[in-house]
Amino acid sequence: MNGPSGIGRPRATSAAPTAAAPPRDRREELLAALDEVPPLGPVALRVLELLNDPNASAADLARVVSRDQGLSAKLLRTCNSSFVSPIEPVTSLPQAVVTLGLRAVRNLVLFDAMPVGKAGGAWTEAEQRIWTHAIGSALGSRLLAMEKGGVDPELAFLGGLFHDLGRILLLQVRPMTYNALCGAAAPGLPERLVEHECLGADHTEIGGAVLRRWGMGDELAAVAERHHNDPASLDPLTLLVVAAECLLETGAEEPPPLHVAAAARIGLVPARQENLRERLHGALQKEQEFFHLSA
């Protein structure tokens, strides 16, 4: 990971293992393998719908979560943990939702549904790096949306969370190859060109295609597909997610020109970035503790 918090931007290198299969064959094999990746389950999708419904209540959310026995147990266990420290034991799902808050429940549900760290319950270094970066990007995007306006903060959260979904999926369907690519690119992640040469497609294409297949909508799919494009060509949501990457930088590392240009286009001046960065890192620390507890 980059920096002490582990959320610095991924760094890339051209060094990577050489793949033997023709590019077209690799791409078709990869896309076929992605068909085996389960989509976000009905509980996760319904939770997202409820959180966009201003009339939804904690009881509504609890009713949806109750359909998944494992998730219900995890929610109650988390709520009664030393991390939350309730005054009295929490014994019902509606009470757990109220105690944790809607955002925390949403995050727990998405974390449980995402296809990462499932095999044997173990996280590889690459998975942890990608997921931590996704959480940081989600929190930073929401923070920036609240700061600048123009984009719904909760949509911005999802845009940041899912923007690198393709990397997680590549780890799922090609774990040995992608872990080797990540190792060659340490302490960052492989470039899109390296992904394409070795796997037949890059994470932007994969992420956008799968988000559409999961029914997550064109806005979120566009973020996954276009977050490496010229900021001048980006829609407001994708532009904000790219600009939020500046908030993830740590230490003396220089932000990539793409992120700097995006920040400039939304009027995020360097002095303000530093204040928001401090707030983001504090929020991320709490989220990391929560997710590690809930894993």
Write the layout of secondary structure elements.
Elements: H1 23-34, H2 42-51, H3 58-65, H4 69-79, H5 93-100, H6 102-113, H7 125-148, H8 153-162, H9 165-173, H10 175-184, H11 192-199, H12 203-213, H13 218-226, H14 236-244, H15 257-265, H16 270-294
Please explain how this structure is put together.
With 295 residues, the chain is an all-alpha fold. It folds into 2 domains: 40-113, no CATH class; 123-295, Hypothetical protein af1432 (Orthogonal Bundle), CATH 1.10.3210.10. The protein has 16 helices and no strands. It has helices at 23-34, 42-51, 58-65, 69-79, 93-100, 102-113, 125-148, 153-162, 165-173, 175-184, 192-199, 203-213, 218-226, 236-244, 257-265, 270-294. The model is unreliable at 1-19 (pLDDT under 50).
Keywords:
16 helices; disordered N terminus; mainly alpha; globular; single chain; Hypothetical protein af1432; 295 residues
The CATH homologous superfamily name of the largest domain equals Hypothetical protein af1432
Helix percent reads 55-70%
Domain count, please report it. Answer: 2
Radius of gyration, Cα only, in angstroms?
19 Å
Classification by helices and strands: mainly alpha
The top-level CATH class of the largest domain is Mainly Alpha
Number of H- or I-type helical stretches: 16
CATH topology of the largest domain: Hypothetical protein af1432
Q: What's the CATH architecture name of the largest domain?
A: Orthogonal Bundle
